[in-house]
Specification:
Layout: H1 8-21, E1 25-30, E2 33-38, H2 46-52, H3 59-67, E3 79-81, E4 86-89, E5 105-106, E6 111-117, E7 120-125, E8 130-135, E9 142-143, E10 148-152
Antiparallel strand pairs: 1-2, 3-10, 4-6, 4-9, 5-8, 6-7, 8-10
């Protein structure tokens, strides 16, 4: 039995999409089957990463907020989770004020963050009204599905 012809251009396009979006893998339907492209991400030791990379603005505030409280963010009832893999944006556009900051009061349905996935800006609404207690991500940070973005109390 002959194996199906491999569409190298499709594979290159998918690999490029992985690079652009920061995703680690993507699967695409193709000729009754599917093509899966996986990118291996190498881990950098934490000490080397700290020494080599200047933290982005706001990273210290997010780190400080992360150490506050003794509740595990994932088990907190006010945890706002990322609904997808993508890149976080804390403001509607570069140079604009952030949607929220720690201490702000938000209304249910209010946009609190954007997660970009495959060049689509997905506005993440507050699932409930309350006070922003912690912000656990920084602008332009890659996030995984189910990762805690912030805590609303």
């Amino acid at each position: 039995m002959a194996s199906p012809k491999i569409d190298k251009d499709l594979i290159r396009d998918l690999a490029e999409l992985l690079e652009e979006t920061g995703l680690s893998e993507i699967e695409w339907p193709c000729d009754g089957g599917h093509v899966r492209v996986v990118r291996t991400l190498s881990a950098v030791p934490a000490m080397a990463a700290q020494a080599a990379v200047q933290p982005p603005p706001g990273a210290m505030a997010a780190a400080a907020a992360d150490t506050e409280g003794d509740t595990d963010p994932e088990s907190h009832p006010g945890a706002v989770l990322s609904p997808m893999v993508g890149t976080v944006y804390t403001a509607p556009e570069p140079g604009a004020a952030s949607f929220i900051k720690v201490g702000d009061t938000v209304e249910e349905g209010q946009t609190v963050i954007i997660v970009e996935a495959m060049k689509t800006m997905n506005h993440i609404p507050a699932p409930r009204s309350g006070k922003v207690a912690r912000i656990l991500v920084t602008n332009e940070q890659p996030v995984e599905f189910g990762q805690v973005l912030l805590i609303i109390e």
